[in-house]
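Exercise 7.
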Amino acid sequence: MRVDLHCHSTASDGTDTPAELVRNAAAAGLDVVALTDHDTTRGHAEAVAALPQGLTLVTGAELSCRIDGVSMHMLAYLFDPEEPALLAERELVRDDRVPRARGMVARLNELGVPLTWEQVARIAGEGSVGRPHVATALVELGVVPTVSDAFTEDWLADGGRAHVAKHETDPFEAIRLVKGAGGVTVFAHPGASKRGRTVPESAIAELAAAGLDGIEVDHMDHDADTRARLRGLAADLGLLVTGSSDYHGSRKTCVLGEYTTDPEVYGEITRRATGAFPVPGTGGA
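Solution. The predicted structure, written as C-alpha cells, is:
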C-alpha cells in the first residue's frame, strides 16, 4: 500500500484541480492520497466526485499556525469540516489571506518590482491566495528563476523584505480545535530549515504533551540527518511518523508518492479519527 498524506490542489496553491489531483494520484500508483489544502476544505467535494476506483481519499487541511514567533503548519486529517469552532478559525485565517497578499504586492512595488494585484489574483484563481501565488508572479516577471528562489530573505521568506504577516492559529489551540472536530494532527515538515526558523524540539515535546499525534518526517525539505533526528524524536515522544510528497503540481519539483507513510501508521490515523472517514473510490466522474 502506497500512502501520500500531504497534497495540494487549486483550492489553495496547487496547480492540479482536485479532480486532476486524484486522477494523477491513481496514475502514480498511490492507494491512498490526502487532500490538505491550506486552511480550506473547499476542494474535497470535487475530489470525492472524481475519485477513481482503487484510490482512497483522506480529507484534511494544512492549518497555518505560529508559536513563539515561528510559523509552522499543522496537518489536520479526517475532522468534521462543519464543526463550528474549527470552521470559524479556518475562516479567520483564510479571510486574512487577501489583505496579506495585497500587502506583499505593495512592498514589492516599493522594492521596484512592477507586480500587480491583478496578476496575483489571476494566478490564484479560485484558490486561497498565498505566498506561492506571489512567488509564481515573480517567476513570470523574471525576478527569480523558480518559486523556491522567491522564499528567501530578499523576497518572501519570514522576515524577508516583502514578507507580510497574517493571522495564524496558536498550535495548541489548533490541536484542541482539531481534536474537538474528531480529527488527527501531524506537524508538517518540522525540520524544513531552508524555509526559515524552525520550532525547537522542546516546543514539539510540549505539543506532544498537548495531544499532537505525529510529525511529518519523510519530506523533500528534510535531509537524511534531519529525518534521522526527527525519527528519534518521534520515538522519544510517542509520536506517529508520516511521509508525504507535499505535492503542489507544477508549482514545485516534488512528485506524487515521492515520500510515503507506513500503512500501519495510516491505519492508526484512521483509528484515531472520529470526525470523518477515508473515502474509497468508486470510479469517479
